[in-house]
Specification:
It is found in: Peroxisome membrane. InterPro entries: PEX11 (IPR008733). It is a single chain. By secondary structure, the chain is an all-alpha fold. Among the domains are: 71 residues, no CATH class; 59 residues. Helix 2 packs antiparallel against helix 3, helix 5 crosses helix 6 and helix 6 runs antiparallel to helix 7. 12% of the residues are buried.
């Protein structure tokens, strides 16, 4: 069982890393791990070995950041592909256009930021490209958040509707089960009454000390009467 779980994890990891987004998330994890490590190690710079480790952590952060920008080459075109997906209604279409437009600006100018930082373009242009890229990113995220918030609200309403339907279904099943139980009890009462009346009839058909005994006839008569009473008593 444990080996199966390990194999399942490895299979999922391979599938995850086979995707460009999977590699991007892995490198992003390393990038921000380096950032946090640099911050932590910089605060402990009194030790002789710490400054060197802090520098290495910063190098990890910077290199991963540049690597992620390289991985995202051509990523801005994915926004066009996302717009091809059918929108459920006009408001969602408008949100999708605005959100993906912001994301396309982000990825498009992110390429120029990367080229500037590695020296292909003028490095002094990197802050401007980064500003435009970040502005597009922030703009797109606003509408992505709005769309997801709407989806969450719709999901909550749908969940409540299904919960009410489930409760109604359960209640209906409980009513059906109760009706079956009532029928079963009524059938049992009918059997008891018929058996009691059968004993009373035997007293006239084939008199014998047992069926003609006062106790036998008395109990049989009461069982028949009470069973009939139960069956004919008005239900609440």
């Amino acid at each position: 069982m444990e080996k199966q779980r390990e194999q399942d994890f490895l299979d999922r990891l391979v599938i995850f890393l086979a995707k460009r987004d999977g590699i991007d998330k892995l490198v992003k994890t390393l990038q921000y791990t380096g950032k946090l490590s640099h911050w932590h190690l910089s605060r402990r710079s009194k030790r002789s070995s710490v400054p060197n480790l802090a520098t290495r952590a910063k190098a990890l952060e910077v290199s991963c950041g540049l690597a992620r920008k390289a991985f995202r080459l051509g990523r801005w075109l994915s926004g066009l592909n996302n717009l091809r997906a059918p929108a459920p209604n006009l408001p969602f279409l408008a949100l999708a256009i605005l959100a993906n437009a912001g994301e396309m600006v982000y990825f498009f100018f992110d390429h120029f930021t990367w080229l500037s930082r590695i020296g292909v373009l003028d490095p002094s242009l990197a802050p401007r490209f980064s500003l435009v890229s970040a502005s597009g990113e922030a703009f797109g995220y606003v509408f992505f958040v709005i769309a997801d918030a709407i989806l969450i609200a719709q999901g909550v309403r749908e969940e409540r509707r299904l919960a009410l339907e489930l409760q109604a279904m359960i209640q209906a099943k409980r009513v059906a089960i109760a009706a079956i139980r009532v029928k079963r009890v009524m059938s049992a009462m009918a059997i008891a009454a018929n058996v009691a009346d059968f004993v009373i009839a035997l007293a006239d058909i084939e008199p014998n000390p047992f069926v003609t005994h006062a106790v036998t006839l008395g109990i049989s008569g009461l069982v028949s009467a009470w069973a009939g009473w139960y069956r004919n008593w008005p239900s609440s």
